[in-house]
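Sharing a chain and its predicted structure for anyone who wants a worked example. Both blocks are below, sequence first, tokens second.
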Amino acid sequence: MRLIRLVALFIVTTISLACTNQTDYSRLGDSATTQERRLLVTFVDRTINRDLPGSSQDQYRVRGSYNNSAWSEHVAQQLADKYRLQLIAQWPVTELGVNCVVYEVPEPLVVNQLISTLQGDHDVSSVQLMQSFQALSEPTATTQAAYSDPYLPLQTAFNALSIAEWHKKATGHGIKIALIDTGVDLNHPDLKGQINYSENMAPEPSDHNLADKHGTAVAGVLSARPNNGIGIAGIAPEAEILAFRACWPDQPSSLAARCNSFTLALALNQAIRMHSQIINLSLSGPEDPLLKMLIEKALAKGIIVIAAVPGKNQAGGFPANIPGVLAVGQGGEADQNQIVAPGRDILTTLPHESYDFMSGSSFATPHVAGMAALLLQMHPDWQAAEIKQQLRHPESMLSALLNGQTH
């Protein structure tokens, strides 16, 4: 094991919402250097969720075909031909009942004019540009609980929140948490066996190494195995973690990462379909209509969605600003309606048996997701509003817990 301190890194994650049948991952991962020329177009798909003979679209996988119907493929190609667009990707967003298509607008067509024209087409439900988001993290330069994990005294947040006391009552057992991020090192000794399901929805890096830094770090805060004689302990170590890799590093082994909305939409849709109870989104960016529809769908199903709030000098604010989403910061952010959680000098896991101190609301967010899992285990009937009310006052909540009064 080695403990490495990294200094002053910043993670940038580009996320845009898309959808496909035969996907050119390299094109989906491209980032526009000047004007974004990729559009996301949706139209109502009457074949979604219908039990049609020979249809297996409800069993799509990230590689290969997404089993679009012949009808939806025909409509998508018709729109491409009609408006001289290049069809990049197509995918049924089953939770919204629409088919989502990624088009590229060739030169010399004017993007804004084409958006206005498409919005007037009776076959089209929505049109938008790709959007960009940032993962909100920045690496940085007590009391020992009854665990054998040697780095536990360095887990200041774990100790400040009295998680060892919480673990006497709950460990997140049976609570399903969707972690939508970069990849997780499934072989890290503190995470091995802790991730119940993983799926890669992003283009692989050139070295095919899916053990990425940001996702591994967030997973460690949430679910590192306690009392195993190594490393650290997670907030909700017995929760069922569904790790969706929707982002990939800019360079192999880089902390900086990118996503596009195609991969994020896949992950959100899959998280909803797999009956997640909590969704952790350690990212932020501009308003995005399609992402908003998927998150609102999750909220309508009673899923607790937790998202990071950007710092004062960071752009964005979406999706933390969606009503019903639990917005999380480490303190000092402009958002006054947030839950403040530890996000400074958080010791957590990194790929290849490593550990590091990390800072940013990216790492405050899984603290809240983990605490929410503990509360849900004790109170399965609680909704997001009740969880939020409790998490706003962690000191009084702990006192009530120890006295058996949380209800």
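Comments welcome. The chain is about 25% helix and 20% strand.
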